Amino acid sequence: MSKTDEKRRPDDEDTEDLEVNEIFGENIQIRPGQLKCYLIIVYGDNVGKIYHLDKKTTTIGRSDEFDIQLEDPSCSREHSIIEFNDDNKPVLKDLNSTNGTFVNGSKITKIDLEDGDKIMFGVSSVFKFARQDALEAEFQMNLYESSVNDPLTGAFNKKYFIDILNKEFSYSVRHKNSLGLLMLDIDLFKRINDTYGHIVGDIVLQEVVNRIKNNLRNEDILCRYGGDEFAVIFRDFKPGFVKITAERIRLFFDGRSLNCKNHKVNISVSIGMATIDNKNIATPEDMIKRADANLYKAKHSGGNCIVI
């Protein structure tokens, strides 16, 4: 069926309006003016992540200063831009990138974007250009967040932790930047579950995440590694920063209690630390092993301490 035929299907349009009306119970029409422009990752890193094109010009590339930062090493630091012209239509331009920008399989230097266009930056980062209403965009965002976040605590999940540590490790090696990792564990968490029940245990996990976040920078990445074990990734820091942060987190819990379901729960944390400049760390897996081994030593030294 041609695109012309698709545009002449009133039955589909009626059905779409009916579905919206059934949800909201009122006569809502989605007007073209309500549709906004987005890029959605469909292949490569962070599949499903959505970017709202809400600026006159959106920059795309590996540069830390660009709006959409590409992790793919085949992409240039300054790869492409999307600009809205005087008619408010999005125009994609390649910035003389090394490996090119492709739309629907064809290499381009400049092109007007249409809904559904597939855009490839470099050799393996593929996005879809889409015009969506706010409901569709929110649904897409929720799908992505559910794939990377731990549903109980809101911290990033283990899969995301592994993915981002691999990327940050490669970036650190390539640019000779600092990189640090903390592995944290709640001391005697099983006893909390056994004494107060799993509902209180879940509240403790949520509160621990919230309080750890209060002691981190915006760019630090907190993940739930599993059970009551958490990981924090740091980059671009001065000497001693990770150790100071670890001690601040430990002291934040030491001697304090959490109020959970009319129970005062005393908790402490044990912390293992590793940095990329430690001896015998050549891979992200080495870094995890070092931090996890130090966490084990901390717990078996009585807990409530840090091993570096």
Overview of this protein structure:
The protein has 308 residues and is α+β, with helices and mostly antiparallel strands. It has two domains: 36-143, Sandwich (Tumour Suppressor Smad4); 158-301, Reverse transcriptase/Diguanylate cyclase domain (Alpha-Beta Plaits). It has eight helices and 18 strands. It has helices at 3-7, 10-24, 134-148, 158-175, 189-196, 198-213, 241-253, 284-299, and strands at 36-43, 50-52, 57-61, 68-69, 80-84, 90-94, 101-103, 106-108, 110-112, 118-121, 125-132, 179-186, 221-226, 229-235, 257-260, 263-266, 269-275, 306-307. Strands 2-1-11-10-7-8 form a six-stranded antiparallel β-sheet, with helices on one face. Strands 4-3-5-6-9 form a five-stranded mixed β-sheet, with no helix packed on it. A five-stranded mixed β-sheet has the order 13-14-12-17-18, with helices on both faces. A hairpin with a 2-residue loop joins strand 13 and strand 14. The longest helix is centred in the middle third of the chain and has 18 residues, at 158-175. The protein is elongated and about 65 Å long.
Blueprint (SSEs and pairs):
Blueprint: H1 3-7, H2 10-24, E1 36-43, E2 50-52, E3 57-61, E4 68-69, E5 80-84, E6 90-94, E7 101-103, E8 106-108, E9 110-112, E10 118-121, E11 125-132, H3 134-148, H4 158-175, E12 179-186, H5 189-196, H6 198-213, E13 221-226, E14 229-235, H7 241-253, E15 257-260, E16 263-266, E17 269-275, H8 284-299, E18 306-307
Parallel strand pairs: 3-4, 17-18
Antiparallel strand pairs: 1-2, 1-11, 3-5, 5-6, 6-9, 7-8, 7-10, 10-11, 12-14, 12-17, 13-14, 15-16
Helix pairs in contact: 5-6
